[in-house]
Amino acid sequence: MAELHEIQEALQRLGSDGNVLVLGTAVDWDTDEAAVYTIDVPAQADADRPLIVAVKNGSATVDLTATIGNFRKFYAAASSPTGTTTVYPTDTGDVMTGTAHGLVRGDKVQFTGTVGGVALATDYWLSGTVAANTFQFSTSVLGGAFTVTEDGTNACALQQEYAELTSFTIPAVATGELGIRDRIIQGWPKGEGGQIKLSKSADAAAAFYAWVEIRRL
């Protein structure tokens, strides 16, 4: 694996330091870890100016997928979840069950009750495993799955939506390569800010790092 300073030097050739929004932010996976990691990017006053997002994959065995999107305040629409959704906390598996809940990973919700161990007037983010009828959630966008303490009935209300803009793949690093891929994004991040999600193509892999850099063009 290339040394960190070599990676940063390569990334620095993408633009001038005055235009850096995120410089060499690192995330790391433990051996065989199944996780999606996220990096939050504040909304920019000059969001119409294009940005370049560069990602370095430090693994020689698995590909990475970088998904880029915006957060936005929730406004009810025909294509969005509306009102409150009845959910059933389940201790086993630490999930909430809500038939056709319509939520996606990254959405921010608040619960209307405390069943399951959650708190009132507190923000939670969907994370971990999100399926059509169940979801896990976290106390922060970077946190692990919340530990549900009891079974029962609760309800949640959507506070903020995550809208995906684009995604790209960073292949596993071949011998002699830096393993950097980039994407130019126009009009990002807007609204409530943006987020980059990093996921790997397979759980089984040795521990490795990934690095992200974002610059204005």
Strand content: over 45%
Shape: globular
Number of helices: 1
> Alpha-carbon distance between the termini?
28 Å
Helix content: under 10%
Strand order of the largest sheet: 5-6-9-8-7-10
Mean pLDDT across all residues, rounded?
Answer: 81
* Assembly category: single chain
Number of beta-strand segments: 13
What number of domains?
Answer: 2
Radius of gyration equals 19 Å
- Strand count, sense and closure of the main sheet? 6 strands, antiparallel, barrel
Topology as a string of helices (H) and strands (E): HEEEEEEEEEEEEE
Ranges with pLDDT <50 over ≥5 residues? Answer: 1-8
CATH topology of the largest domain: Jelly Rolls
Quickly give the structural class: mainly beta
CATH class type of the largest domain: Mainly Beta
CATH architectural name of the largest domain: Sandwich
Structure description:
It is a single chain. The chain has one helix spanning 4-12, and strands at 20-29, 37-41, 51-57, 64-73, 84-90, 95-97, 108-111, 124-130, 134-138, 154-170, 180-185, 193-200, 208-216. The protein has two domains: 4-69 and 163-216, Sandwich (Jelly Rolls); 73-162, Elongation Factor Tu (Ef-tu), domain 3. The chain has one helix and 13 strands. By secondary structure, the chain is mainly beta. The protein is globular. Mean pLDDT is 81; it is low at 1-8. The relative contact order is 0.36. Strands 5-6-9-8-7-10 form a six-stranded antiparallel barrel. A four-stranded antiparallel sheet has the order 1-13-3-11. β5 and β6 form a beta hairpin. 4% of the residues lie in helices and 45% in strands.
